[in-house]
Amino acid sequence: MTPRRIVFVGPTLPEQRRPAGCFEYRPPVKHGDLFDLCLRPGDQVLIVDGVYQHYAPVRHKEILAQLARGVHVFGTASLGALRAAELADFGMRGLGEVYAEARAGRLVADADVAVLHADDHAGARRLTEAMVSVRHGLAELLRDGKLDTGQAARLEQAAARLHFTERSATGLRHTAGADRDAMHLLLDHLDRHGDVKTRDARHALDILAAAPVPPPPAAPGTTDIWSSSYGREWDFEHRPLRPGSAVGARLALACLQLFAADFPERHRAYTLRLAAATTGRTGSAGLLLGAAGFAPATRPHARLARATEATAGWDADERLLARTFRLPPGRLVYQDLPAEAVAGSTLEELEERCLRLLLPASATALPTPHRHTLLRQLWQAGSDHEYRLCALERGFRDTAEAARLAGAFDLALVARLLHAPAAVR
Fold first, then answer.
1. Residue 121 confidence (pLDDT)
2. Alpha-carbon dihedral sign for residues 225, 228, 232, 238
């Protein structure tokens, strides 16, 4: 299979300036994008631009996870250069002058490479100048004798006073004051010769295009420190139930969570086992909760401890434990398909049930409100609060997660089977 060559780029190198050919261009990277690509060993990723503020930025552990899988990850010019400098010791490769400055410790702030820009579908047009581009442009004008050191220092100070969203050509000219003509010279220089970020990005693409994609790097000795809850969740979402299976492990678990009438009992057994392993204590749910720091006095009256149809035979401690359980560091409830969830069935039997209930590829999922209505009926929840409790005691983080996963199944078929629940257990 031919390795993929993916570039995350936006305003640093607008579309009309990107070389055609072997690269697959994507908008500036954000948190989760590397996981969503389902990259394979030997694939190549170049990060130029990335977003933050309105979206979570790409996490270091996302990049480390790809490196651990044998993906080649490069960074240049902008956020990519900063991440490459931070992760160079772990195998990410940096290219260009901005990377060299970051690696040497002369460039440390994300804001120094940040710009305000239009969306990629609008041409990714840059609306402001990056501080790193201003500094490089001033250094080039100084070198060529077109500015003196006093002018360059004043222009740099004027630009630094502006927030990156305000560092437009108009804003720079206005803040320059008596050095307005010198600032105009700088802006003209950047326009004619291109800023350092643009040159770095184009240079990186030329280097990668000219060289064949190398074989996958050797996997590091351990990936334990690179693991994150997001990475584990992504892996679970994309892992097949068994080798060659058309059903994913996460969907197989969801099929049980949603439709197995006794799943709360399975979930209770799972949480008791894992809570005992985490606290180092054995015994009742009350002892485990006490070891975890829950105050006993509040348990019988807690809203989370109220009984539902499926948990009427449990005590309040068991209901609290099952509904509040999270795996460290506290985001996920499940990251695999444990024996308690499968409850004696074989993976082949579980796969067969899932395939029978999954929505056909050509069909459209029910709207989310309809999913909530059916789940409330299926779980015999008489109120909004009871519906929330039902979702929690089945191992979902909330009703929104339950409804999202339910969208993969043929809920019209499930509705017809409601009067024969054994058919979906």
1. 59
2. negative
